[in-house]
Amino acid sequence: MISEQKYIFTSERLGFRNWLMTDVEIMAEINSDEEVMEFFPGTKSRQETTEFIERMQHQFQEKGFCYYAVDKLETSEFIGFIGLSEQVFAADFTPCIDIGWRLKRAQWNKGYATEGAKRCLDYAFNQLKLEKVMAIAPTVNLKSEQVMKKIGMKKTKNFNHPGLADHKRLQECTLYEINAGEFKTIFN
């Protein structure tokens, strides 16, 4: 049962954990919401969601991090993901560790993405001892860029994402980054 799930770490309102196959149904709903997926090439099917969760479980086993499944602590409700993932697409800054988030639309505008991303950076730098974390979003995704700024990240550049070459509206992406020293200076 999720409420008894041991969290890898928590923030004030959120619990971060490895994925369970019981998360597929809700994550598939999130991934099929056109508004949630506005800045992606399209929505994701239940099968694609299952494959994503299996990749995240494997990455967690291999690396000790992933885009973590996130629950609201108060209710144990699963609301989406916030976390870290290795990116290896062809670019002059990859491979890199990326921070990302995707939450149920009903949970937007409550500060969860910012709270959760800041806590993930804290975990990345203080427990995992990572040196740098990047964030990538299409330049049209101003909401994600605002979260990047709120968690202390600095814009490095814009670039054309090779995986989005067939999606002109999304192809130009913004790259943000923060290192351990910068994070500690801002938040400690």
UniProtKB/TrEMBL annotation:
The keyword Nucleotidyltransferase does not apply. The keyword Transferase applies. InterPro entries: Acyl_CoA_acyltransferase, GNAT_dom, N-acetyltransferase. Signal peptide: none annotated. Coiled coil: none annotated. Keywords: Transferase. Pfam families: Acetyltransf_3. Residues 14-171 form the N-acetyltransferase domain. One of its GO terms (molecular function) is acyltransferase activity, transferring groups other than amino-acyl groups. This is RimJ/RimL family protein N-acetyltransferase. It comes from Pedobacter nutrimenti.
